[in-house]
Specification:
Blueprint (H helix, E strand, L loop, with lengths): L8 H7 L5 H14 L2 H4 L3 H9 L20 H11 L4 H10 L5 E4 L5 H8 L13 E2 L9 E4 L1 H15 L15 H13 L61 H15 L4 H5 L14 H19 L17 H28 L6 H12 L25 H6 L1 H15 L7 H14 L4 H13 L29 H17 L11 H29 L3 H9 L14 H5 L1 H22 L3 H12 L13 E4 L2 E4 L1 H4 L3 H8 L4 H10 L12 H9 L14 H16 L4 H28 L3
Antiparallel strand pairs: 1-3, 2-3, 4-5
């Protein structure tokens, strides 16, 4: 009885706390192998918490998010072996699973929308929670879920990504190298296999039989997994579905559970109702995902695409569903649209609207782009060549594009609005614009998106008595309406169902290829052109720095302008290579945008020409604020006064130059005007008297006639046009100087 493996499991667990990590895991392996489930079930919650940390984030557990193989290879290897889907910890899960033990999980630690729904006694739409909600007894500690061992383990594993405190900035951890990220990948590959079937539960004793897995709860026929799903009918928790031990479902109940837990814990933090109220200033979202969280979600999406694309060709179509189809193959068909689509859209919408305007948005961007391109993870990808035809998006992906239309169009508009507010001179920001433009410029993709918009915007052509049934949500055991006879109507119905399920039937859809978005794209093209020229001017300034500048800097007199717009830009730190990268990214992005939106070469050339004629006081090319119309650049009200600060500074000088500028740039005071109309006096009084440059007099007939007569007189006196023009300018300068002196002298004698 003195040997560690013969002690009670709780004693071994307590004694192992102070032992080295390797010895601790060896003791746990012996306990799992030697003791029956009856004695192991009491330590299971403590063991899970000691590994993944407490739900309140106080205990960090084994800190899997910071454990890296390159830094701690020994501990990393032990952890990966112990927590592997075929390792000792999962053997313990299956040993307890065979005895039908249940473990309490507090509802208070579930994602916000789920917790709120359960607390309001409304059953959440996900079948993951059905038949699990337990009411507290009198004097109890609150609502909780009754989970089987596998569910309990996966709940803790998934939530440890969120409940634990964010990694400190000083700790440089590469997420893809950490133990947690690797375990997510292994669990996905094991329970959502792209080849073969899910391995059966492992026996916990040598030579023993595998424990019989519990059925998924509640048993729900796959026919009820509609292609689109908004929310199930609100049902009271007291009406939870009873467990139906469907033999065919036992094969994949772990696969379903794993996917649903990952989606619920990682994505279901924003409800549809809250999203639709997001424009309200009083709407607040308490959950903010981290960059690490986003990277893990991207891993999930990439694997789900590979999982769904491993479906056999003859079983891709919903009409191919038959009793001969295996549950795993059927699950592949419905996994993304049934479980992921809506929650991912809301998650992405929140990230696009609330993520800081910095380079960390790249993680969100790549997650979005990964979901947009399921063809990248198709099984036939390996056989494709590198020619242009293979890079074309095949027509087989049109249903995916149409049934995810908002993820393409509305989020693209969201990205445009972000890009218009970022510094595109930064190589990291330029790269993000390039990445998005490159993805959307893939051959045939823009046409697919445009076709989806046409299907959504086409008028309703349905039988009158069926109109009231359009776009209704399925019940728990029901499905969407039967297929419509015309193929186009069916495709239109699917697109409309997708949009209305996410945005509501009263949504105002802004077409991606409509005039409003085209204006945004032209504005972005203008900023790209401006950023290219700014980067080049910075490059020229670095190359052509005068030798005296370094001498002044050596003496301690830095000539750098503290008000420079680009003093903190990462171009200054990374040098000429970054400038070349920025120019390359922006040049290609501009070309991709031209292809996607069919912009004319004349429009882009006009942008470049207009920008080339404008320089600011530092010699850097800068365009006043304007908008790009179909006929060219249009100066805005802001652009008309954007250089007003320089004119104010000149007119404020006390010397002759200030007087000269005041004479030309400031209008005469109202006292010197003869305004007979009361209306005219009120309008004039309301106008600002700031300095302004007006060239309207050049368009008057009187001025044009005076110039004409002057040149005629010059020709009669044998004076050529150019000398004549110089004489006119010189004469005007003398006249203006005289008037400036008289005006200033007159002001001195005014009372």
């Amino acid at each position: 009885m003195a040997f560690p493996h013969l002690q009670q499991p709780s004693s071994v667990l307590a004694d192992s706390i102070n032992k080295p990590f390797a010895q601790r895991c060896q003791d746990l392996v012996k306990v799992i192998e030697d003791f029956p489930a009856k004695e192991l079930h009491s330590i299971f919650p403590l063991l899970v918490e000691s590994i993944f940390g407490s739900l309140d984030g106080v205990l960090v557990g084994w800190n899997l998010r910071c454990l890296q193989g390159r830094v701690n290879p020994v501990e990393y290897g032990i952890v990966m072996e112990f927590l592997d889907p075929g390792g000792p910890m999962m053997k313990l899960v299956y040993k307890l699973q065979a005895e039908d033990y249940k473990f309490d999980f507090p509802v208070s630690y579930l994602p916000g929308p789920v917790k709120a729904s359960i607390q309001e006694r409304i059953l959440p739409d996900s079948p993951l929670y059905h038949n699990k909600v337990q009411f507290p007894p009198s004097g109890g500690l609150g609502l909780h879920l009754a989970l089987n061992p596998f569910e309990y383990y996966i709940f803790f594993f998934a939530l440890s990504l969120i409940t634990q405190k964010p990694l400190p900035v000083s700790l440089r951890v590469r997420t893809s190298d950490c133990a947690y990220f690797t375990l997510v990948d292994r669990y996905l590959s094991w329970f959502l296999p792209t080849e073969g079937s899910v391995p059966p539960p492992l026996s916990s004793s040598p030579g023993g039989t595998s424990p019989s897995p519990a059925p998924r709860t509640p048993a729900m026929p796959f026919a009820s997994y509609g292609l689109h799903h908004t929310s199930l009918l609100k049902r009271h928790i007291s009406h939870q579905t009873s467990v139906n031990a469907d033999p065919t479902s036992q094969e994949i109940w772990r696969s379903e559970t794993l996917l649903q837990v990952f989606v619920e814990m990682w994505l279901h933090h924003y409800s549809l109702e809250m999203y639709q109220k997001m424009q309200s200033p009083h709407a607040k979202e308490s959950f903010t995902p981290s960059e690490e969280h986003v990277l893990v979600v991207r891993l999930l999406l990439k694997h789900l695409h590979a999982f769904a694309n491993s479906l056999k060709p003859e079983q891709v179509s919903p009409s191919a569903h038959s009793h001969a189809t295996s549950p795993l193959e059927e699950f592949k068909r419905v996994a993304v649209p049934r479980f992921v689509q809506q929650k991912l859209y809301l998650f992405l919408q929140h990230c696009f609207g609330h993520w800081p305007l910095d380079a960390s948005f790249r993680a969100v961007l790549e997650m979005w782009l990964s979901y947009l391109q399921p063809w990248r993870y198709a099984s036939e990808k390996q056989a494709q060549s590198n020619d242009s035809q293979s890079r074309c998006v095949l027509e087989k992906w049109a249903p995916f594009v149409q049934e995810n239309l908002l993820v393409y169009t509305k989020l693209f508009v969201g990205f445009l609005n972000r890009a218009l507010r970022t510094d595109l001179v930064s190589p990291k920001n330029a790269l993000m614009v390039f990445r998005v433009a490159k993805v959307f410029a893939q051959p045939n993709l823009a046409e697919m998106i445009q076709k989806g918009e046409q299907l959504f915007l086409e008028p309703e052509l349905v039988i009158p008595h069926r109109q009231h049934r359009l776009f209704t949500t399925p019940t728990v055991t029901g499905s969407f309406l039967s297929p419509w006879p015309p193929a186009v109507t069916d495709a239109s119905f699917k697109v409309k169902s997708h949009v209305y399920s996410l945005e509501g039937q009263d949504c105002k859809y802004t077409p991606m290829f409509g005039p409003e978005v085209r204006t945004l794209v032209l504005r972005l093209a203008q900023l790209i052109t401006q950023a290219k020229q700014t980067a080049r001017s910075i490059s020229d300034q670095c190359v052509e720095t005068p030798s005296g500048q370094s001498f002044l800097s050596w003496l301690g007199f830095s000539p750098t302008d503290p008000n420079s717009s680009y003093s903190g830009n990462d171009l200054d730190e990374m040098g000429q290579d970054s400038i070349r990268k920025t120019d390359e990214y922006l040049e290609k992005a501009l070309e991709y945008l031209r292809q996607i939106f069919r912009l004319s070469e004349a429009q882009l050339a006009q942008l470049t020409l207009a920008l080339g004629t404008t320089q600011d006081e530092n010699g850097k090319k800068q365009l006043p604020d304007c908008i790009v119309g179909e006929d060219g650049l249009i100066l805005t009200a802001l652009g008309r006064y954007q250089f007003a600060d320089q004119m104010v500074a000149l007119c404020s000088r006390d010397d002759f130059l200030g007087s000269f500028c005041r004479y030309h740039l400031i209008e005469p005071t109202l006292a010197n005007r003869h305004l007979l109309s009361p209306v005219g006096r009120r309008q004039a009084a309301s106008q600002a008297r700031g300095p302004r440059l007006s060239l309207r007099f050049l368009g008057s007939y009187r001025t044009l006639l005076s110039f004409f007569l002057a040149f005629v007189m010059g020709s009669l006196l044998s004076i050529r046009p150019l000398p004549c023009a110089l004489l006119l300018v010189l004469g005007y300068l003398l006249y203006a100087m005289a008037m400036t002196l008289l005006t200033e002298r007159g002001k001195l004698h005014q009372p």
